[in-house]
Specification:
Blueprint lengths: L2 H17 L5 E2 L7 E2 L2 H12 L1 H16 L20 H20 L5 H28 L4 H9 L2 H21 L9
Antiparallel strand pairs: 1-2
Helix pairs in contact: 1-2, 1-3, 2-3, 2-4, 2-5, 2-7, 3-4, 4-5, 5-6, 5-7
Length: 184
């Protein structure tokens, strides 16, 4: 891996961390899992960096969080966050970014907005939610239906993030055509 790849991975990890500075919302139905902007960063990591490097950006962020840096929404950090109801979502960011990047790479013949939209849905919603539901079932001791219903409260906001990711990707491609060079 060259120094440019390391810099890009670090930059996207930092962007996910910065999105954690935005205010969080807690809904009682979600088992204590906050609504954050950080999943937008996870989607963009996969879209911009591709599957492997996008997942590595998330791994880097989560390693720094595990070391105690308060980089998650609401200023959370440390090993304790991996034993909370949100752990399934956090760990789901890794395969979520990977799948987002993989779908984006596969859709090279599709216009970038549509490709980014589909990729963000696949990785940023389907994969992350699947991991989050399993996490709620294990950590919060919810049944499958209860965890699914609790997770559904995130869907409207995450659909807004999907649209935002698609628009940002389209704008990046127009401003800097080589930004998504891995799709060529």
């Amino acid at each position: 891996m060259d120094s440019r790849a390391i810099a890009r991975i670090s930059l996207l990890a930092a962007m996910i961390a910065v999105l954690g500075l935005l205010p969080t919302f807690h809904l009682p139905l979600a088992g204590g899992v906050p609504i954050t902007a950080q999943t937008l960063g996870v989607m963009l990591a996969g879209i911009v960096l591709g599957p492997r490097q996008g997942a590595l950006a998330v791994v880097l962020l989560l390693l720094v969080v595990a070391l105690g840096a308060p980089l998650l929404a609401g200023g959370r950090g440390g090993l304790g966050v991996f034993f909370a109801p949100s752990t399934g979502f956090l760990l789901g960011w890794i395969p979520g970014a990977f799948v987002t990047g993989a779908v984006m790479q596969r859709l090279t013949k599709v216009p970038v907005f549509a490709a980014a939209f589909a990729a963000a849905i696949a990785g940023g919603i389907v994969v992350v939610y699947g991991c989050g539901i399993v996490g709620l079932m294990i950590v919060a001791h919810m049944g499958a239906l209860q965890a699914l219903l609790a997770t559904s409260v995130f869907l409207p906001g995450d659909l807004v993030k999907v649209v935002a990711a698609a628009f940002l990707t389209k704008a990046a491609e127009q401003a800097y055509p080589a930004a998504l060079g891995y799709r060529a």
